[in-house]
Specification:
heterodimer, A: 120 residues, mainly beta, seven-stranded mixed β-sheet, four-stranded antiparallel β-sheet, 11 strands, 0% helix, B: 112 residues, six-stranded mixed β-sheet, five-stranded antiparallel β-sheet
Chain lengths: 120, 112
């Protein structure tokens, strides 16, 4: 099946530094990837849609200059949290649309294992 | 504005019995629904989905029911097994839009 990996799985950084999170589709090409953020005991919140070769589309309320997204190839999207602050501490998850979605209009996404970011 | 709601944050079920997880939505444009299972510190794993042209979809122990008039869907797991203990998210989308809107999740605990 479709496998999505994320690196790193866990990162601790000091306030003011930038952190890069990688999302890779291992056995398929993904023209579209998604970045989510999950707060404790909350839903997954879509941050942005990452399109290969073009600018990402950010959801309302998400600062595009704070969360830089680059989708340079069909298998790699990166999320950079710039000038991280403690309130950016969260669980970040990426996903990619299934290469062969089942059924008409299927929007099945395969998720990476997530990255736990802790900003001190 | 929470367009997809899971009103039960937690549910405990005896092993072997049926687990029923519920999900309600408000956006009538949604026409495709998915259930995901999530373990702590891991990404969600796809379980089962249903299109709005159906009212039931079954895959092994998992069955999803859709009631469009009530804007309600449910996931039935039978028989429940200890490995089913996890957080379950329902998600919704509409045709032509790849974005998924997730509910807040229900933590299912299967009691041996």
């Amino acid at each position: 099946g479709a496998v999505v990996s994320q690196h790193p799985s866990r990162v601790i950084c000091k306030s003011g530094t930038s952190v890069k999170i990688e999302c890779r589709s291992l056995d398929f090409q993904a023209t579209t990837m998604f970045w989510y953020r999950q707060f404790p005991k909350k839903s997954l919140m879509l941050m942005a849609t990452s399109n290969e070769g073009s600018k990402a589309t950010y959801e309302q309320g998400v600062e595009k200059d704070k969360f830089l997204i680059n989708h340079a190839s069909l298998t790699l999207s990166t999320l950079t949290v710039t000038s991280a602050h403690p309130e950016d501490s969260s669980f970040y998850i990426c996903s990619a649309r299934a290469p062969n979605p089942r059924g008409q209009g299927a929007n099945e996404q395969f998720f990476g294992p997530g990255t736990r970011l802790t900003v001190l | 504005d929470q367009q997809v709601k899971q009103n039960s944050p937690s549910l405990s079920v005896q092993e072997g019995r049926i687990s029923i997880l519920n999900c309600d939505y408000t956006n009538s444009m949604f026409d495709y629904f998915l259930w995901y299972k999530k373990y702590p510190a891991e990404g969600p794993t796809f379980l089962i989905s249903i299109s709005s042209i159906k009212d039931k979809n079954e895959d092994g122990r998992f069955t999803v029911f859709l009631n469009k008039s009530a804007k309600h869907l449910s996931l039935h797991i039978v028989p429940s097994q200890p490995g089913d203990s996890a957080v379950y998210f329902c998600a919704a989308s509409n045709f032509g839009n790849e974005k998924l809107t997730f509910g807040t999740g229900t933590r299912l605990t299967i009691i041996p």
